[in-house]
Amino acid sequence: MLYNIPMINNIRTIGIVGGGQLGKMMILEAKRLGFRIATLDPGAACPAHSISDVHIEAGFEDKEGYLKLAEISDVITYEFEHINVAMLEQLEQKGHTVLPSVTSLKIIQDKLWQKQALLKHGIPVPKFTEANTLQDLQDYYAAAKKPFFLKSRKGGYDGKGNYLVRGADDIEAGFNRLGGKELMIEELINFDKEVSVIATRAASGECVIYPIAENIHKSSILDTTTVPAAVSAKEKAQIMDIAAKVMECFGGVGTFCAELFVGKDGVMVNEVAPRVHNTGHYTIEACRVSQFENHIRAITGLGLGSTDMTVGAAIMKNIIGGTGQDGAAKFTGIEAAYKFPSASAHVYGKGEVKEGRKMGHVTVTGGSVKEVKTILSKINIECKAENKYKI
Amino acid sequence: MLYNIPMINNIRTIGIVGGGQLGKMMILEAKRLGFRIATLDPGAACPAHSISDVHIEAGFEDKEGYLKLAEISDVITYEFEHINVAMLEQLEQKGHTVLPSVTSLKIIQDKLWQKQALLKHGIPVPKFTEANTLQDLQDYYAAAKKPFFLKSRKGGYDGKGNYLVRGADDIEAGFNRLGGKELMIEELINFDKEVSVIATRAASGECVIYPIAENIHKSSILDTTTVPAAVSAKEKAQIMDIAAKVMECFGGVGTFCAELFVGKDGVMVNEVAPRVHNTGHYTIEACRVSQFENHIRAITGLGLGSTDMTVGAAIMKNIIGGTGQDGAAKFTGIEAAYKFPSASAHVYGKGEVKEGRKMGHVTVTGGSVKEVKTILSKINIECKAENKYKI
User: Among partner residues B36, B302, B305, which is closest to A335 by beta-carbon distance?
Assistant: First the structure.
């Protein structure tokens, strides 16, 4: 049952498509401001379900679910980008507010369109080209004569949807693996570092940008984010300039993330996400106002908060289901981690651990990167299956 | 329905007696760590209900409610002290964990016993004495010949349960007003300032103490809390020493608050609350780890976090239902407040505003008290009744 709650800026209820950890962390901020939350997610026990006022248990292609969400929400947002754009478009046409706008989502959701938009706005990106047939790939390789990335234009995440073509023999396998349609080719980039920048844009065009984060991936899944990133003053200026341009390019309202390569080939954008991002979790403990709070402020029309760091440095480390894990989730090491006063663990509340599944994260803050690295090296939080293992 | 969630330190579910704003803010921290929450509160639409996994709609004297809460909770805590100690005692005897312990709650809940305990531990308090009959009061006044405070030993808050006896003519009226039993007499104190100190104690005895907060009450209800308090170095040392002794005195596990008078008569403890406190709301934005997070850490056996301030100064101002307000709650001024990047509004989510009801608060942070005062003077958040007024 829904009870009367106060209205802020003509908004009482925020609808969120997706009830994972990103949705959960958004809700924790929205609840401080007293908003009501409706979540659409197929998982009855998704991380957001227990703190949502209404949980619509529906798939991301379920039209009835979207309609129900729209009916009770004053503004609709989303925690991931692989959702049904056509349905959101219909909601927008009916007069519902979707933020970031469906236009920006539609462009970003398609990696080819995304790169084309970035290029058009003078933002450096790796060389890329559309590829629709096996012949396209073979022609490209015959001319380029060097390895390349084959990517699905839609739906990829955590390395899924990417295929490294090392030579002529890989082409057909890659083409088939990625479903043989809606593909693009991207050149391989020489980079030393992967960094990301989180930024939030208000409807007014006001934009706040967070400090640059340096990311390390393991098996294509984010392992750690370190802030500040070890980049030169020149690189820093370039990255911040690019981040501002990215926010202008899509004209989105809300929190976005730009992932960039930094190295010999210069600074270029790898990917943009129209949403709060794993590499921005550090902002909860390390910045005045987190990426989640600023997202909620932006989509509800409230002024944006300061992105200043309150600490010298921070590291965020993901807690991910290890090899072969499959069963009821059990964490170890949290009690030990809390012996360090600047460690903060986040447990998403997923009951089942699976190999590669993001189960939580830990953030350590301190005066310097060296200091936080030392503390983190003494922390070992793991999430394993309690009662069964894959063999 | 309850789903499997990971266990931390043998705890899955935290039971909270009371679902008001203090409970809500505890839950927002507990949820980061993935705990399941069960709340006992008579209000179906209480601030905590929408973020609790289980809401037991039961009165604070309802035995069945307490039993149900205990059955599903691994640890039980409370957000206010005027609850049924006998029932909690029974739960403790049955082997359930209640933190802070029922022993400390029992002593603190009775203002006479509380003061006796403080006195016994060498902690300065105003002179006080038990008073059970009208004759006791008349005898006291005949000897003292000066105004005094008459207080109910149990159940008072926000000035309720206190009666200022100005002269002989007031004695009978005060005695009757406060129900004519379980009373105590307290001398009037000359004080310049009311301050409070929040502290959290772990089961290990480890204790962390927050900076001293200076409080201004209006009509006996807290209006603002300013940190740091404008006290001398000598007073500061005394206050911090007293705060540490208070935490030892009750041996409680969790967050406590000591309210003190500072002035000509020295520093003395006015009152202790065995719980998170309105004067500690500033810790959410201004300190590394808030009073709410440290409370959750303490009662779940996790190490305590740093109480260091991340800003030079902070002011918290309560948003309270004004004179004659009674109806559906409507806030104004939140959008305007958010033009200041260091302002943070909290809306508790109570649907109905009433005169004197705490509806939310706003915290402003900055470099100095002067700076935050200037910002706060430009902020005017109000909560009024939307559709009806008392005449």
Answer: B302
Beta strands A54-57 and A36-41 are parallel
Weakly modelled stretches of chain B, pLDDT under 70: 1, 387-391
> In this predicted model, what pLDDT tens digit does every residue of A360-375 receive, in sequence order?
999 999 999 999 999 9
Q: How far is CA B105 from CA A279, B82, B198, B252, in A?
A: 43, 9, 16, 8
Exposed / middle / buried, residue B331 (Cβ in 10 Å: 0-12, 13-18, 19+): buried
The C-alpha atoms of residue A125 and residue A119 are separated, in whole angstroms, by: 7
- Give CA–CA dist B91/B15, Å, rounded: 12
**In whole angstroms, what is the distance from residue B271 CA to residue B287 CA?**
23
- Per-residue pLDDT of B350-376, as tens digits, reads 999 999 999 999 999 999 999 999 999
Residues 186-225 of A with CB under 8 A from B: none
Residue among B89, B86, B130, B88 nearest B111 (CA): B130
Distances (CA, A) of A126 to A117, A185, A261: 13, 10, 9
Chain B contact for A113 (CB, 8 A cutoff): no
Q: Is A310 on the interface with B (CB under 8 A)?
A: yes
d(CA A97, CA B116): 60
pTM comes to: 0.95
Q: For the residues of B152-176, what is the DSSP string, one character each?
A: ESSS--TTTTEEEE-STTHHHHHHH
Asked if residue B331 lies in contact with residue B379, where contact means CB atoms within 8 angstroms, the answer is no
- Which B positions 319-378 lie with beta carbon below 8 A of chain A? 328-331, 334-335, 338-342, 344-352, 359-360, 365
CA atoms of B230 and B115, how far apart (whole Å): 26
